[in-house]
Each structure stands twice: as C-alpha cells, then as structure tokens.
Automatic annotation (TrEMBL):
Residues 363-465 form the DUF5941 domain. One of its GO terms (cellular component) is membrane. This is Unannotated protein. InterPro entries: CDP-OH_P_trans, CDP-OH_PTrfase_TM_dom, CDP_ALCOHOL_P_TRANSF_CS, DUF5941. Keywords: Membrane, Transferase, Transmembrane, Transmembrane helix. GO terms for molecular function: phosphotransferase activity, for other substituted phosphate groups. It comes from freshwater metagenome. Gene3D superfamilies: 1.20.120.1760. The chain crosses the membrane at residues 142-167, 317-334, 456-475. GO terms for biological process: phospholipid biosynthetic process. Pfam families: CDP-OH_P_transf, DUF5941.
C-alpha cells in the first residue's frame, strides 16, 4: 500500500512497519502519522480472509466513506497485515484525495532522479540523511548505469575500509579518516542500487551487515597499533561495548516486533481506534531527530571516529567513543527497559535469542521477558572475563593477537545474530569446534595463566569463524528450498 506524509491531512497511523489505524469520516485516528494516497495491492494468499473482512462493509452507515478508504479500514480492523510503502516526494494524483492537479510528464532524467530518491533507506540517521545519502547518489547513479551489482559495491567499500585502516596504522590519520568516510559513502550506495534495481538476496544482506562490523573493528585495531602507548585494552573494550550495543539493538527489535507488533481485531462500528492515549501520539521532527542522534547510528559513529582520529589518533578516538557510546547505550537501555516493563506474559516463541546463546551448559532460552538482553550480556561476560584474567596476569599480554582472538569471536556472534534473524541456527559442528562460551573462556584462561602465546588460537578462530563459517553460510543459502 502506498503512503505519503503530510501532517495536515494524515489519516493513517503506522507503527512497527504496519498500519494500525485508519481515519475516515466516522472513525478517529488521533495519532495518524501518514497519508493514504489511494493505492492498495492485495495478496491472493489471503483471499478468504480479505473477502470475509470486506463483507462487513455493506452497512449503510459506511456509504459516505470512499471505497478505498473503506477497504483499507476493513482490512486493518480485521487484523490483516497491511504494510505501507512510502512514496516520499514522488508526484501522485488522486482527485478523491484532494490531488486534482495533473502529474507532469517526467523526462527520462527526471524519472531517474526520482527513482534515486525513492531508493533511499527509510529510518536513516541524521548525518546519513543530511550528508551521506547526498554524496552517495552519484555513485549509485553511475553503478546503475554500468550495471554494477550491490555485492561488488560492498566489496569495494570493504577494500576502501581496509586501506583506511592501513593508513591509520601508519599514523596518516587525516587521509585515513577521509577514506573511512568514503568507505561509508560507497557502502550507502550498495543498498540504494539494490532498491533501485530490486535486486535483493540473503547473501547481500549478510555481506553488507558483516563487512560494516569488520571495517569498524579493524580500524580500532589499526588505531591501537599506531598509538605511542599500548591501547589494545581500549580497542578490545570499545569493540566489546559496540558488540554489546549492536546485539541488543537487533535482538530487541526482533523481540519487540513479536511482542508489540501483533495486530488485534477491532469492531468496525467503534469510532475510536484504541490508540488515543498520549503515548501513541506522534512526535515533532525536532524530537525525532534528537532521538536519532542519541541512538548514535553508524553515520554519526563513523563521523565521530573520523573526526577524533584526525585530531589525535587512537588517544582521542577511544576515550571519546567510550563516552559517546556509553551515553547512547544508557539512553537505549533505559528506553528498552521501560518498554519491557509494559509487556505481560511469556510472549510469542522466538528463536532469535536461543540461536545466539552459544552455551554448553544449557540449551534453553534465558531471560524471560528480558531475553533480548541475554546475548549482549553473554558477550560482555565472555570478553570481560578474558580481559580481567589478562590484566591479572600481566598487562603486556593484552596485545594484537588477543584482539584478533576476540575479534574472531565477536564476528562469530554477529554471524549467529544474522542467522537467527533469518530463523537459522549456527551449525552444531561449527559451534563445538568453536568451543562455545564456557570452552573459549576456559581455554584462554589456561593459556594466559600458563604464559602460552594465543597467536595460534587467533589463527584458528579467524579460520573457523570467518573463513569456514562464512563458506558454510554461503553454501547453505544457495541451496534451493524444498517448498
């Protein structure tokens, strides 16, 4: 279903990516935040449910409601999922909705510009909208013209990110910072090309998401390497903080969608939509963007890394990023705990937590209604336990090889996260080769306490978690489904 945004005539309430309420002449929607443009695409897979819902619209009291508005209302009130598709600034005409003016004929060039605009990702951060997406548009246009695939663009972005890390390692902080930003601009383009050409794939989503983490954490390593004094504890700690945050972001999103995203039927003859309480009302643009910035998304985060690195290398990046990241984490977790307190009961079953736990001692999902926090807490326990043991033994053992061990482990947890979001578990044989959480802590504790170098463990985990696991995942998603 197509929707636009016009605060003066909004008649749809959209939340959790679904339409929750429709305003008509006889139905209220006080929290409406989108405008219906009068286009609906119905699914044949729900034919019987749709027909049952539409049968309720024959009552004479609904005769004055425009047909498409009534159809949409009937679908929403009968708890049939309707997903809005934003058309943003695309020209549209519908006399029944007050748009009488004819749509001007678009030249091929204007049409391409419009398609580039519509290729923007919704829900982007402030810096991404203000700067990055504008700079990525020429790259996207050129890529579409040359037929370059989104995955190739992701790979180019990865190479640029690696080179920026190399420059950081050589203390060329200004050029490294510029290239780090360029890698992000190019990375914006891969998703835009995918949306422009409608070329999506499970591999592309996994490749894009996983390489973002690789680039960021390799930059941490490069900045620690180039610092005049050992900053490996800072690099490992910052990687732990960001991993803690990212895993809770994705996991909470999946859990909250299951908890809060469910649709409930509502009598078609009731004028009130059930979303009249103040907490459901819309928010100002200023408040929206302040909350976006406080969430410290990738655009703002990489900008902070680049600026701080250009000023003073790792000695500025690590303390600064710890401060910004901690403030953002505190804000995010306070918000999520407050939302979690409103949840009642066990909630729908969701495998996203169980598939991430990676524990030897239990195969049951932990945490109850706070289960979204479990993957992050387990990762924190694993990394901080190893760091604590290393500090107790000797500060010098916290070096680049220990960073690589924990980097490979963190990559494994991201891999498990992305698989779990697609309802895929990490293969048991790979999990056991990776020793699981308890086994890895025990192994590293033994090596650190006996003074054995962790170099070979680093190579083993890198080969297993990044090499073998990635190949296995690629082969798995290429298998034809047995539908």
């Amino acid at each position: 279903m197509a929707s636009g945004k016009d605060s003066k005539v909004n008649d749809l309430f959209v939340r959790n990516k679904l339409i929750r309420s429709v305003r008509t002449e006889v139905h209220a929607s006080p929290a409406a935040n989108r405008r219906f443009v009068g286009v609906i695409r119905l699914s044949l897979n729900q034919r019987s449910e749709i027909l049952d819902a539409l049968a309720q619209g024959k009552d004479a009291r609904f005769a004055s409601i425009p047909l498409l508005d009534l159809i949409l209302l009937l679908l929403v009130r009968n708890a049939i999922a309707v997903t809005p598709v934003s058309i943003e600034d695309a020209p549209w005409r519908n006399p029944s909705r007050g748009r009488e003016d004819a749509i001007p004929t678009l030249t091929p060039r204007a049409e391409r510009r419009l398609k580039l605009t519509l290729a923007n990702r919704s829900n982007d951060g402030f810096f991404s909208v203000l700067v990055l997406r504008r700079l990525s548009k020429p790259i996207t246009a050129l890529s579409v013209r040359l037929g370059i695939s989104p995955n190739l663009i992701t790979f180019v972005s990865l190479l640029i990110g690696f080179y920026s890390a190399y420059l950081f390692s050589q203390r060329d902080y200004i050029l490294g910072a510029l290239l780090f930003q360029l890698s992000l601009i190019v990375d914006c383009s891969d998703g835009e090309v995918a949306r422009y050409t409608r070329k999506f794939s499970d591999f592309g989503r996994w490749f894009d998401a996983s390489t973002d983490r690789v680039k960021e954490y390799i930059v941490y390593a490069a900045l620690a390497y180039s610092a005049p004094e050992s900053m490996w504890p800072w690099a490992i700690g910052l990687m732990a903080l960001q991993t803690f945050r990212h895993l809770s972001d994705y996991t909470f999103s999946a859990i909250s969608q299951a908890r809060e995203g469910g649709l409930k039927k509502r009598d078609i003859f009731v004028a009130d939509d059930g979303f009249s309480e103040p907490q459901w009302r819309g928010e100002s643009d200023f408040k929206y963007w302040v909350k976006k910035i406080l969430n410290f998304p990738i655009g703002e985060r990489w900008l902070a890394i680049s600026v701080l690195a250009a000023i003073g290398g790792g000695e500025w990046v690590f303390p600064g990023m710890f401060f910004f990241g901690s403030v953002s984490l505190l804000y995010a977790w306070l918000t999520r705990v407050r939302r979690t307190l409103t949840w009642r009961g066990e909630g729908p079953k969701n495998s996203v937590v169980l598939y991430q736990q990676d524990l030897l001692l239990t195969s049951k999902a932990l945490g109850g209604r706070y289960s979204w926090a479990i993957p992050s807490l387990l990762r924190a326990v694993e990394i901080l336990a190893v760091l604590a043991i290393a500090f107790i033994m000797e500060d010098a053992v916290i070096d680049g090889y220990l960073f690589l061990v924990l980097f490979a482990t963190v990559y494994h947890h991201y891999d498990a996260l992305y698989r779990s979001l697609q309802s895929q578990s990490f293969p048991k044989w790979l999990s056991f080769l990776g020793l699981k959480v308890e086994g890895r802590i025990a192994l590293l504790a033994l090596l650190l306490m006996t003074g054995v170098d962790v170099q070979f463990v680093a190579y083993y985990f890198l080969a297993l978690f990044i090499g073998i696991a990635s190949i296995q995942w690629f082969l798995q998603i290429r298998k034809p489904s047995r539908a």
